[in-house]
Amino acid sequence: MDYFLELFLGGLTRGSIYALIALGYTMVYGIIELINFAHGEIYMIGAFTALIAASVLNIMGFGPVTILILAMVLAIVYSCAYGVTMEKIAYKPLRHSTRLAPLISAIGMSIFFQNYVLLAQTSDFLPFPSLLPELEILEPYAYIIRSSEVFIILTTFGVMVLLTLLIKFTRIGKAMRATAQDRTMAMLVGVDVNRVISMTFIIGSSMAAIGGVLIASHIGQINFYIGFIAGIKAFTAAVLGGIGSIPGAVLGSLVLGWTESFATGYISSDYEDVFAFGFLVLILIFRPAGLLGKATTQKV
Prior knowledge:
The protein is an all-alpha fold. The chain has a single domain, classed as Orthogonal Bundle (ABC transporter involved in vitamin B12 uptake, BtuC), CATH 1.10.3470. It is built from eleven helices and two strands.
């Protein structure tokens, strides 16, 4: 039973990180119907920013809690700057072109960011300090769950609640829903669509940065390629749950995390990705729109 619980909580931790990234994918797709393949690199840039900030703050003699807060804030700000700049340069000029053009641009931005960080940093794995504090009350259960996993799960849950409240009850949230439903009509009634799209990238980049800092602190190392792997998994989770659906992105992320965790624990870590993507194929065969996605019809 303890082993099952360990795998369950491990899968929940994985799913929580996937959810933070997948929400960025699904929000951008819901607003402008673009698969932002460079979103994983925003996650990676957030982790590297936190590493640099934590190293400098540690030399300056700041305490662990202060380092965590400041490193997280700087990672969010820096990632948001990259996310908005990327939207303005690589996506906005192609907004009215064929759907293939921004997709290729997104892949190009992903490759650009990877090589940019590779040249600016190194191709080797770098050690990442453990920024998340240890919880003494968990010591008797440390063989089942780590303090960092608790922080990841609780932080993800808090972010989900705040995002839900933002989308449902704020003015910008209503503007996002209007733009997602009908961009042209939203413009006609006075919604600043460009501002809404920029805000969507800011929110998505913020969540990706938070995920990058949390998982890097949990694992203890990073390199320039972590964004690509995490981005592919998060995109898979978004498709699994139903691309464009926020609850679907969360559900798909949790399902993917548990699938990987139980496949690793009961079968073999070599087949982790086989079962994850195999499950995705089965879901898409029987539910092409995803678990919570809605089938759409197109006029011809």
